[in-house]
Structures are given as C-alpha cells and as structure tokens.
Amino acid sequence: MADPTLPVASTPVAPADRGEAGPVNKGEMFTSFDVDAFEVPSPREEVWRFTPFRRLRGLHDGSAQRTADPTIVVSGSTDGVTVETVGRDDARLGDGGVPFDRVAAQAYSSFSDATVVTVAREVELAEPVVIDLTGPGAGEVAFGHIQIRLEQFARAVVVLDQKGGGTYAENVEFVVGDSAALTVVNVHDWDDDAVHVAAHHIRVGRDAVVRHFAISLGGNLVRLCPVVHYDAPGGDVELWGLYFADAGQHLEQRLLVDHSQPNCRSNVVYKGALQGDLSGDRSREAHTVWIGDVLIRPAAEGTDTFELNRNLVLTDNARADSVPNLEIETGEIVGAGHASATGRFDDEQLFYLQARGIPEDLARRLVIRGFFREIIAKISVPDLRERLEAAIESELELAGA
Questions:
Q1: Half-sphere exposure of residue 339: CA atoms within 13 angstroms, side-chain side
Q2: pLDDT bracket for residue 361 (50, 70, 90)
Q3: What's the mean pLDDT when you consider all of the chain?
C-alpha cells in the first residue's frame, strides 16, 4: 500500500503523467514519490551498469533502513533568507522535481525532516549561504532532503558542504524563480568510509541563471545525478564538475539537461583525475564514471548547448568511463555539441616545462593545477577556492606528483 503521507502529484516532470512507465526518450523518465513504484534496479540496466551494487549497502533494494539523521547547520547571509525545518507533507517539496529512481524515492520516503532555504524576491545576498551537512557516522544510515528556493529576481550563492561518514542518500531541490540567479557549490569531502547517493533536481524559471558546481573528493562511493528542467524560455544553466579519485574510490556523475523550452542555454564542463593502487589490486582501482545526457525537445527551438568531459589518468589501475549523449528532436537550434577525452599526461607539455629547467615532479604538478584551474577559477568564494586548491595539492602528494 502506498504511503498516505506522500504528496499528490501536481506538476509533471515531463509530459507523461507521473507514475506512467514506458519513456519515449530520456526526458520521459518514470518518476514517483513512492519507493514501491520502482523495481529493484539491476546492473543490467543502462543507468546502473557502472555502479558497484555490492558497495551501495542496501540503498538500492530497501534493506538499508534509517538508523540516524544527518546534522545540518545553515549559516551566512540572513537578511532576506528564511530557513525552515518541515515535514514530508509540506506542499513545496517536489517543486524542483520528483524522484526518478528507487534510491531517490527511498530517500524521500525515509527522511525525518526536510530543510527549506528561501531567498526572498528581489534580494541580492552579499555573502554566501553555507549549508554544512555532516553524515550519520560510520556504520549508520541516514536519508535527507534539502530544498533551496530563489524567488523572482533574487540573487544568491549557496555552498552545500558535505562531510563525515556513514551511508547517506538524499534529494536536493533547486527551485529558481523567473529572472533569479543562483550559484551553488556542492563539495563532497566525505570520510573514506562514506557512501553517498544524491539526486539533484534543478528547475529553472524564465530568464533564470543557474551555475551548479559539483566537487567530489572524498568518500568510498559517491553517485550524483543532477537533472535540469526548464519551465520557460530564456533559462541559462552551467554545470561545472571537478573530481579526484584515489585508490578504491568510485565517483560517478550522471547528468540530464532536458531542453523543453525555446531559447535556453546549457554548458557542461566536468574534469577529473584518477590515481589507483600501484600494487595491481583490482579492489583498489580508482574508478570514475561520467554520463552526460542532453535532450533537445521539438519545442526547444533556439537551444544552445555544449558538454565537455576530460579525464587525466595519473597512474595504472585507474579507469575512467565517459559517455556523452546528445538527443536532438528539432533542427531549429543555435548549436549543440559534445566532447570527451581520457588520457595520461601530455608528454609535450612536460617536455616544454622540463626544457626550461623545471624538475619533472614540479612540472607534473603544474600540468594538473592547470588542468583544474578553469573550474576552480569560476568559484566566486575565495575561502572555498583556497580550500580546494589545498585539497588538490594533498591529492598530488599522494600521487607522488
């Protein structure tokens, strides 16, 4: 029997009604608040084929039950910002999007309280809002739900900083009103034991601007699925990602940008580096997965979109899977394209630097810093930029670069 506390569907994520199977394209995915509406996923399914199920700790089949809650602290700008703790019956939950897989539905059905952060109409925040989230701890399981709302003409920077240990699944909604501008930086700085599975639902109003940064550094397994929906023409979305996988880590990013409205723009840039265990132990392989799906529907005339993924393999025993997908249903667009590449150091770059008297180890560091510099420079929070640069330096020390 369905949970009577689950909300009634109101606005569909796609033209198909919620709860109807048989998607026509990637945008017509099955969605439901009810975990029982989803079958237990299988590695044979395309959307799960890269994920190591044995490391999900039961998040996919319902055997992972809540034993604790995350700790959430919201700080930073306060004028024009409302922070609320609400129950599952709050009518606003789901405005950003509805769970599209069993783990996301399990997270929605299992959280104890949701956190809603609202930036009022026409408010422009001078300082970022910082949401510090700490996992439940080693051996514990938690579920969460966060919604960030920007009303019309609001402008804000939000930092979602996630750390700690344990097993954690969540939904995060970003509801960006007409002509509003949101920059969000999500940092995954988990402990080595952490398993984190997250669905990000990004809903973009008329002429709204979203800059979404996903930074994955820590954790045992991290799987992030951002989905972008445009509500009206003029939306402008950029998705930036940076990940650095060490031995034994699995970092997975699966994106869908659903262009359903005319004259919208999207740009996706994700860059990753990998370093595995040189002993050859396959269980200590560094593994990253990036799947980038862009759908341009028949009504989305005037779309301008591009997606890019680059992976730098630093050692043996490291594997990067990169799959860009572009589905176009109208020819009346400004432009659409994608690119993906995975490789080792550019020998010509190293030779150029060494020929000018720079030692090889320093030359390698300079190449990696330059590789990530494009993304870090886009982050508008100075303290966070410095922290990420220091974290990358620490990773390079582990790599011996």
A1: 7
A2: confident
A3: 90
136: tokens are: 């439940």
pLDDT tens for each residue of 295-343: 999 999 999 999 999 999 988 889 999 999 999 999 899 999 999 998 8
Using alpha carbons, list the distances in angstroms from residue 242 to 53, 132, 258, 286, 397: 24, 19, 22, 15, 18
Q: How confident is the model at residue 15 (pLDDT cuts 50, 70, 90)?
A: very low
In eight-state DSSP terms, residue 122 is T
Maximum distance among all Cα pairs of the chain, rounded to whole angstroms: 71
What pTM did the predictor assign? 0.91
Q: Measuring CA to CA, which residue among 358, 345, 350 is closest to residue 399? A: 345
Please state, in angstroms and rounded to a whole number, the distance separating the CA atoms of residues 313 and 319: 8
**Pairing state between β 167-176 and 141-150:** parallel
Helix (H, G, I), strand (E, B) or coil at 43: coil
Q: Which tokens belong to 273?
A: 């580096």
Contact 379, 348 (CB under 8 A): no
Domain ranges of the chain: 26-344, 348-401
Burial code (b: 16+ CB inside 10 Å, e: under 16) for 177-205 equals: bbbbbbbbbbbbbbeebbbbbbbbbbbbb
> What residue spans of 294-359 are helical by DSSP H?
347-354
